[in-house]
C-alpha cells in the first residue's frame, strides 16, 4: 500500500467531498478476498508497534474517528486493532454530553481522555461533534461553534507539543451506502438495537453534515494533526487504509526498546 499519502489532507487544502470517491480502492488492484487476506499481517505489525510504544513509554498516540451514522467507526476499531494488546489501548466513545459535561467547556471531557505515555487512545466521535452535530442541529449559535475551529487547532497543537502523535480519520461513505446500512440495521434483529430514529433525521440533513465535514477537513487538518479521508464504502479497503496509516505513523517515530538499567549480559537464570 504505497501512496497512502493521497488520503492525507494537506494544511490549507480546500476539501469538497464530492471530489472524493468513497468507492475507490486505488492502492489495491486485487479482489475483495485478496484485500481481506492482507489485513492479518498489518494487524501483527500494529501489535508489534504498540508493544514498542508501551515499552518505550515516551510517545502517546491519539486516533480520532469520525463518520456519518453507519460509516463504520465501530467496525474499524474491531478490525484494525484485532490482536493488539488491549492493555495499551483505550477506546473512548463520545455521545450526547451529560449535564456536567455541558456545564464545562467543550474540550473538558475530551482532555481527560487523551493518552498518557505509551498509550493509544481511540476516540469514537470526538470534540469534532462540537462543530458537526452542534452546528447542523443548531445546538449552539454560529458565533459559538465558529470560534471552536481555532480552539481545536490550538488544543491539538498543544497536545503534539507535549508528545502526542495525532491521526484523524474521516470514514467517507456515500448516501446510498448509508441507506443500505440503515436498512440492514432495521431488517437484521441482531443489528436493530443500533438503530435510532435520529439516524433518519440526520440522514435528511446529509447535505448540511457534508458541508460541516468539509469545513472540519479544510480548517483543522494540520501538519501536527492531519486528517485522512478514507474511502469507506468497501469495508475491507477502509481497514487496510486505516491500518497502513497507523503503521506508517508509528514507524516514523523510530522507536526502540529501552536500554536495561544495567548491563545484563552474562546473567544466567538458574
Ligand atoms: P452513537 O455514536 O451512535 O452512540 O451516538 C452518539 C450520539 O451523540 C450521536 O448522535 C452524536 O451526534 C451525539 N453527540 C456526540 N457528541 C455530541 C455533542 N458534543 N453534542 C451533541 N451531541 C453529541
Ligand atoms: Mg449511532
Task: Label this structure with key terms.
single chain; 270 residues; alpha/beta; Rossmann fold; five-stranded parallel beta sheet; 5 strands; 12% strand; globular; binds adenosine monophosphate; binds magnesium ion
Please give a structural write-up.
- This protein has 270 residues and is α/β, with parallel strands linked by helices.
- Helices cover 43% and strands 12% of the residues.
- The chain contains 12 helices and 5 strands.
- It has helices spanning 32-37, 39-56, 73-80, 99-102, 108-111, 133-136, 142-146, 148-161, 175-187, 197-204, 206-219, 235-251; strands spanning 60-67, 89-93, 120-124, 164-172, 227-231.
- Helix 2 (39-56) runs parallel beside helix 12.
- The longest helix is centred in the N-terminal third of the chain and has 18 residues, at 39-56.
- It is globular and about 70 Å long.
- The termini are far apart.
- 30% of the residues are buried.
- The model has no long low-confidence stretch (mean pLDDT 96).
- The site of adenosine monophosphate (AMP) has 11 residues, from helix 6.
Amino acid at each position: 500500500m504505497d501512496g497512502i499519502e493521497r488520503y492525507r489532507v494537506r494544511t490549507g487544502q480546500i476539501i469538497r467531498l464530492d471530489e472524493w470517491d468513497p468507492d475507490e480502492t486505488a492502492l489495491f488492484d486485487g479482489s475483495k478476498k485478496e484485500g481481506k487476506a492482507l489485513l492479518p499481517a498489518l494487524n501483527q505489525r500494529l501489535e508489534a508497534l504498540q508493544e514498542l510504544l508501551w515499552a518505550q513509554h515516551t510517545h502517546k498516540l491519539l486516533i480520532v474517528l469520525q463518520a456519518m451514522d453507519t460509516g463504520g467507526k465501530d467496525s474499524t476499531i474491531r478490525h484494525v486493532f484485532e490482536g493488539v494488546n488491549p492493555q495499551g489501548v483505550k477506546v473512548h466513545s463520545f455521545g450526547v454530553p451529560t449535564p456536567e459535561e455541558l456545564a464545562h467547556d467543550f474540550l473538558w471531557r475530551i482532555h481527560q481522555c487523551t493518552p498518557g505515555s505509551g498509550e493509544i487512545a481511540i476516540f469514537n466521535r470526538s470534540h469534532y461533534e462540537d462543530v458537526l452535530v452542534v452546528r447542523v442541529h443548531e445546538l449552539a449559535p454560529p458565533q459559538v461553534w465558529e470560534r471552536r475551529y481555532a480552539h481545536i487547532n490550538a488544543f491539538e497543537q498543544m497536545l503534539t507539543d507535549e508528545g502526542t502523535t495525532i491521526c484523524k480519520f474521516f470514514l467517507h461513505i456515500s448516501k446510498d451506502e448509508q441507506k443500505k446500512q440503515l436498512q440492514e440495521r432495521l431488517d437484521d434483529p441482531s443489528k436493530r438495537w443500533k438503530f435510532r430514529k435520529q439516524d433518519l433525521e440526520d440522514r435528511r440533513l446529509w447535505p448540511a453534515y457534508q458541508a460541516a465535514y468539509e469545513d472540519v477537513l479544510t480548517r483543522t487538518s494540520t501538519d501536527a494533526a492531519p486528517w485522512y479521508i478514507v474511502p469507506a464504502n468497501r469495508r475491507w479497503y477502509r481497514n487496510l487504509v486505516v491500518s497502513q496509516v497507523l503503521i506508517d505513523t508509528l514507524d516514523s517515530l523510530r522507536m526502540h526498546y529501552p536500554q536495561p538499567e544495567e548491563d545484563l549480559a552474562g546473567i544466567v537464570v538458574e
